[in-house]
Amino acid sequence: MLHLEEAKSKMTIICVSRIPYSIQMRPIQLINKLKRLIKVEEFDVLTKNNQLDLTSNKCYVRLNSILDPQMVCNQINMIFKSSKFFAFVSQSIPDDLGTCSFMLIDVAKKKLMERKTETNILEISFVEIVNELWFQYTGLSKISKNTDHMLINSLCMTIADRLKKIVDEANEVKSPCKLSSLYRKAHPHTSDFQFILSTLHMIEDTNGTTHSDISEEELMKANIRVQPYVMEEAQARTACSIYSERMIQKVSEHIKNLNTEESEDKSEEDKARIRVRKQLKRLSPYLETMAKEMAAAHFTPQVSQYYIIHVYGVPCLPPEDVMLNLVRPFKAHQVRRSFRLFNLVTLKARIDLLNDVLKLDGTDIENKCKLIVRPGWLPRYIVPDEIKEHLLSQKENNKYEKELTNDIDIELMNDIEMADDAWEEW
Q1: Contacts by residues 25-32 (CB-CB < 8 Å, ≥ 24 positions apart)
Q2: Exposed, middle or buried by CB within 10 Å (0-12, 13-18, 19+), for 7?
């Protein structure tokens, strides 16, 4: 055995024992349970020959030195008491584990490392900033459609160039959240409406049309109310009949082709099967009526009880305690701050309280920030591949101009085809 004192200066080891057989067969379940208590980047699991083996009914976990090992063990023993786990600070570890390297076996860790690449950070931030603009200005969809979606494509091209410039000038951008924050420092929310209006006027000048006269209040007007979807009885029966007729046809054909010939050389089991088939053939004329009645009687439209809500803070989010107190009366679930956008919080609200939650739109918090509340099921803008390629392309000949009129390449916009069905519901 390798005593822990030899490695105490570098790591802290705990042992998780009494692992149930079901988890021994699926080691990833143990990792998922530990993730509920410990951040992904703050623990590793010791492996044997680069494989996680739980058949010994225990495993050893390396913790980050900033964590209190005894407190982690107490939390595991308390929270996973029903799973019969028992964790304790290990005084020694097996030799074969002591000489083995520590492996990052968790998929979430790999994804966490992938997020830190510059390309992924740039792409994630780009998509989230475009979605924020799209959700905040609900009238942008109609105006963009009038320009054959040249407006939204032009906005995306400019946002892509802005982000690329920020990434080049910044020393290091470690997360999409940080990049979106840097973007808003350079281009605050107060400039978004002028950004849209100037781009629209630029396109109208190119097309030889008069300038549109729109206001920010009109563009942001969000008259969104949620009504539970209830299907009328006649519609439900019609929908049922379409599928029930197909099922009846298939079942009837199958029963009709069943072999019901009897012979003395067949076994008792085969004879019993033939008697059942004869009974089915006698019932076949009544199958259609029975199937339609059963389908109509049990058909109930499935309505989700919880829906996702997006809450944007302009220019930033309020403190966590203020935000939680604000949504607590609506019994919100899973209130989480996004790691992709610095000023976004997502939550789940009950269907009967959705309209009340949406009324928080436009709420001012101590004159420091304003909340923009939007349903999560609004149509999402799908960025064309040409713009994504431009975003991720090498900047050999890229020139960033400060004037908006020089930011827009009208010829490139004309080459981008944006179909009406390129909008995904999410």
Answers
A1: 27/52, 27/54, 28/107, 30/54, 30/59, 31/105, 31/106
A2: middle
State the Cα angle at 101 between 96 and 107, rounded to 5°.
120
DSSP state of 51: B
Residue type, 168: D
Beta-bridge partner residues of 59 = 16
Q: What is the DSSP letter of 190?
A: G
Position 418 scores a pLDDT of: 37
Give the pLDDT band of residue 92 (cuts 50, 70, 90). Answer: confident
377 with 426: CB under 8 angstroms? Answer: yes
∠161-165-170 over CA atoms, to 5°?
Answer: 150
The full DSSP string for 234-252 is: HHHHHHHHHHHHHHHHHHH
The sign one gets for the Cα dihedral 31, 35, 41, 45 is negative
Domain 306-377 belongs to what topology? Alpha-Beta Plaits (3.30.70)
Task: Tell me the C-alpha distance between 163 and 178, whole Å.
Answer: 12
Q: Coil, strand, or helix at residue 401?
A: coil
- Measure the CA angle with vertex 24, ends 19 and 26; round to 5°: 130
Q: How far apart are CA 130 and CA 103, in angstroms?
A: 38
Which one, of 71, 3, 21, 83, lies nearest residue 42 by Cα?
Answer: 71
Cα separation, 48 vs 105, whole angstroms: 12
pTM over 0.85: no
pLDDT in tens, 29-52: 777 777 777 775 677 777 666 566
Angstrom CA distances, 285 to 240, 250, 256, 274, 298, stand at: 19, 14, 11, 19, 22
Which letter does DSSP use for residue 143 in this model? H
The residue ranges of every structural domain in the chain are 2-112, 118-222+383-425, 233-298, 306-377
How far is 45 from 103, CA to CA, in rounded Å?
Answer: 7
The domain 2-112 having CATH identifier 3.30.70: the answer here is yes
